[in-house]
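Problem: given the chain below (143 residues), write out its structure.
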Amino acid sequence: MKETSKGFSEVKSILISVAAAFLTGVLLLLLFSAVAYSADDPNGMILQFSRAALAVSSLVCGIFAVRMSELGAVSGAFSGAALALLLFLLSALRISAPFSSGAVEKIIIYAAVVAVSTLGALIGRKRGGKSKNYRKRIKSKRR
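Solution.
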């Protein structure tokens, strides 16, 4: 029974991290669209802004996943894969877009989402070991 609840908590942490990444991406896209709208030529910025929003939201996905999970960097990879799956499903809606990418480029983008999410998990992991109490004990032993 304990294993089932632990597995459920891992799935829950992945879903929450994907939701946080999705919300971050939407907010960044709104911010970037306001910046692009104020520029002289917004079409030149669309691709760069969308990729920057994807990278930051993937990073947030990994950080959220590792903070709520006990699996470490693996949770970042799993949440990145879940985010890539969500992006794949959303891209299957066939909304007309000014930029369409080929199959190889899409595969690279999905792999990059997983890699950046794993990087976010490595950056955001809880640091163990030498805490403040450890440093205090070392200082007290020196006296």
